[in-house]
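ingest -> fold -> write
write: protein_1
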Amino acid sequence: MPRQAEAAPLLSIVIPSYNVRPYIDSCLDSITAQKFQDLEIIAVDGGSKDETFTSLHEHARDEPRLTVIAAGRIGPGRARNIGVQHAIGDYIWFVDGDDELAPDCLRTIADRLIAEHPDVLLINHAVLTRDGVLEPSYDNQLIEREDEATFSIADRPWLVDLSLVCWNKVVRRDFLAATGAEFATSWPHEDVPLSCDILLTARRLAVLAAVCYHYRRRSDSTTSVGLRRRHFAVFDAWRPVLDRIRLRADGSADSDGLVEVYRSFFQRSIRHCSMILDTSGYIAHADRRAFFRRMSALYKDYVPAGYRLPPGFRGIKFWLIARNSYLGYAILHPLNKVRLAVMTTISRTRALTLDST
């Protein structure tokens, strides 16, 4: 597709930042050191109390493509919305200030954007551990199904099982504006509604299996710290999404596959909530039963007609959630931790085997 204007870069990278001084230099360096140059960088600082803002300005003195915007403590969702308002690139990529881009990934991404002109390009990522080791992500098992053609979510319902974050999606700016989708103002889980909306609306989705993003695993991230009941926000994030999809599916003859799409999103919502409950440190012990009740209510309110439980261990979890059986779920939780540990070991072993070949 021809570029809209010669002055507009292909890519706008929007970086929300808040107290990420130990990481912001490596984040920016991972972008500016790339051979691909047709981009702009918009950093929106949400009132950092450390030296993040100072570091951003130091980089801006030597990097004309970097624009630094100061904002109050507005949260990552609003910071990204501000970045979108200032972006002029054909595509927008949201990159967190404590993460990094993979070396030379921008050229690979640009080639796909130019060749396919998708509404959304979904990319693969790896997890950067606290020890500085890169580990394959859960998405890696799914995204290997890469197809060079473009498609819609109805053609590939499994796409909803990818991480519902914004940084694994490169979005066409005109498409994003047309949807009217924005990030939620509360956080965490502020990117769930936008991620779901653009997946549902896009007519041209594409997948890139190459690892392009390094997500940093931190014990002090905004997901891990904050108000005690911060993760209860996940229910407010999912309910409007499921309402919109169900309304569209109920009025459809399913010629466009919306019934199956709704089932996929419903199942994803329950899996997301159960993952939060299962993750150590996310939900305080005193709040676990209340969180489980909210999850069970979400299940009962949105379960599709004729829904069949998924197979295996996940099906057992869903069965307990459907019956609001917190005691049974609590007994199952230690077994699930063992299962996940075994799966992680297998994944790491496979990665080491591939590296050695």
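write: protein_2
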Amino acid sequence: MAKTVNEVGIRINDEYCSKCTVCSSVCPFEAISVDEETGEVKLDIESCQICGICFSSCPASAIESVYYDIDSLKNYISKVMKETGYKTLVLTCRGNSPLPMETIEKINKNGSEFISLRVPCVGRIRLELLLKALSLGVEKLIVIPCEEKFCRYEAGSNSSVRKLLLLQALLDQLGFKPDTLTIMKSQIKASIDIYRCIGCGNCAYICPYEAIKIESPGIAQLNSADCSGCGACIAVCPAFAIKLRGYEYESISNTISKYSSLINEAKFRGIKPVVLVFCCQWSEFSAIDKIQKSSVKENVMMVELPCAGRVDSLHILEAFHLGFDGVLVVACQKSECKLKEGNDRAEEHIFALKKLLAQIKLEDRLEMCFISPKYLQDSFKISYIRFQLH
């Protein structure tokens, strides 16, 4: 069925468009083109990745996005300020969160707590929002884009830094303190405990960035400069020797365990099926970030992953053991994986696990789907219907 304008998460408002072509020049995916004869600006939604760089760069505000609009974000900042009294705003990309401890220590060096605002790409944030944050009483803005090499949207980090440097110059002219705006680079990285490593080589084989090698005397060595933080290596390590802050085996397991009381409550109320969703953070925008209205249903509980390739068969089995009726793995569409073959790796894991589950007649309780935030489809409603049919 063809997608209509109302079903996509971004569009160009022809009435506002000044045909300046800034959007087409900044789009890293060549999804925006300009008709040479008419000058009309066109968006190819199939090529679009919803990075939001065009949205933040349009001088006429002619590009409309359903995600992370200025009013919603401003209201969130205002609400947290009133509740906490914090006056430092830390803006981060999903690709560098949770923040490494050394980055948090730098932020807190003066003992200041902060308001955390996380978006899929810092490059999608309009400078207008940061100015509004200052008008609300925010005293320090700390913006943390990904390292350019690992930007999930190719040009998001570079785009954001260029705009932030312009804002920094403006704030200097307006008499703001030099530390009002700070730009810090960060990226989550895996780490290997060499004392637990058994030298099986699974991590080196699975790593799409060739960041891991087995070296003498048969121990995995990680080159952090090449690590993207996708977590694929963790999912295949039988010795639990690899860590990724926020996505460790124990961390995800604890999240699943915390849902056990909710499972019982839902079943007591007659709500079925109760589904656990392992969701790639790049395949979905509205449910993972709580700033916008969540699409998570009361019978659907979610675990966020840095990439679908991080999904672990043991976590899926743990979910069944706790009493979940079904498990759904949500990955990016095949052509849109942000971390090199992560969705393909996940599909291989799920296919292999379903074959094992078939031996105990549970294969129909595990499903996988590929979605994109560019379409306003309710993936969690789809999962509910799918498991209902079983």
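write: annotation protein_2
The mean pLDDT is 88.
The chain has four domains: 5-65, 70-183, 191-243, 249-389.
pipeline exit 0
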